[in-house]
C-alpha cells in the first residue's frame, strides 16, 4: 500500500479530476514526479467509478482505492446494505473480503467481523479505509481463509463467502467447484466452524446447478439493482431439510420490489389468456428465478403463453415489474405491420418470438425510443402477435 498518494495536494488533484478521461490525463506531464503517475491515474479512475456505486467511500477523505477491476467487481453499497439485512448475530467471518464493502455493512449488524483477504496489499488498503470510515469492530487477516478458520478455531454465527472464478475455468459452464475457494469441496469443513453460510455467486450461475453442488439450502436470494440482476445468494443452514424459498428483490431508487415463492418442480399450473387490457413484464430478479407460474397464481393474472413470460389482466394491479396499457393487438404480418408500425418510433421487446429486436427494427424501419412500447410475442394459440402499449408509470 502506497500512502504517498494521501498527501493533500495529490488528494486535491485526484478530486479535481474525477470524471476526466484517463486517456487525456495520461498525456499530461506528472505534476508529482515523486509519486508514480500510473498510481495517481488509477486512483482517479477508481474513485470516478465509486461516485455512484460507493458514495460513502467517495465522500470520505483519504480513501485509498485498489485497481479499477476491484472496484468494478465489488458489491455496490445498495446491494451490500440489503445483504446485511438478511443476517444477524454477534460474529461473522468473511472468507473473501476483497474491498470490504460487504463487511462495512455487516459491521453494523454484528459485534465482530473478520475480513480475510489473501492479497496483503488489498487487506492493508481495507484496514486503512475502515479507520477513515470509523469502523472499529473489524479484524483483518491477510492470509488464506482456511488457515484463518483453523487458527482461530471458533464457532461463528455466520460465514460469508464470495468465491471467485478460477482463471483456468474460462469458457467452461460456470460451476461453484470452478471457483476459489471450492465451496462444495469445503462445505463440511465450514460446517465445523459455523451452522449458517451465505454464499454469493455471479448472476450467471444457474440456480439448479448451484443446488446440485450444495446441501441444506434454505433460501436463495436474487438481488437486482435498477432491474439488472447483480447477485445470487445461497443461504445455507446446517442440517436444514425443509422447502427452499426463492426470495427476489429489485432495488429501485424509490422502493424495493419483492416477490417470494417456494421452489416447486410440479407440473405447469398457469392459466392462459389472449391479451387483455393490461400487460405485465416481471422484473429481472423474477425472470432469473424462473417462478413464472407462481407469479401468475399469486397475482391472479394470466400468461399469454407458456414460454412468453408476459402476463395480462382486465383490471390494473400493483406488480413487481413494468406495467402497460394495451392499446392495440395486431397479427405479425405484412399488412398490419405496414399499417401500424412502418417508419414509426417505438421501444421494441421480443418474448418467445423468432426474430431479434435488431432484425425487426431494420425490417420495418422502426426508430428507437418514444412513448410507444411494442411487444413481439406468441399468444396461447401459437399466433405471432404484436402488442402496442403505453407504459404505466
- Stretches where pLDDT is under 50 for at least 5 consecutive residues are none
- Computed structural class: alpha/beta
Largest sheet: 9 strands, mixed
How far is the N terminus from the C terminus? Answer: 48 Å
Structure, described:
Helix 15 links the parallel strand 16 and strand 17 (372-378). It is globular, with a radius of gyration of 25 Å. It has helices spanning 8-16, 22-25, 37-53, 55-59, 68-73, 77-84, 101-106, 120-133, 145-152, 183-193, 207-213, 284-289, 292-299, 334-340, 357-364, and strands at 91-94, 112-116, 138-141, 158-161, 164-165, 179-180, 196-201, 217-225, 228-237, 245-251, 256-262, 278-282, 302-303, 311-313, 321-331, 347-351, 372-378, 384-392. It is an alpha/beta fold and 393 residues long. It is built from 15 helices and 18 strands.
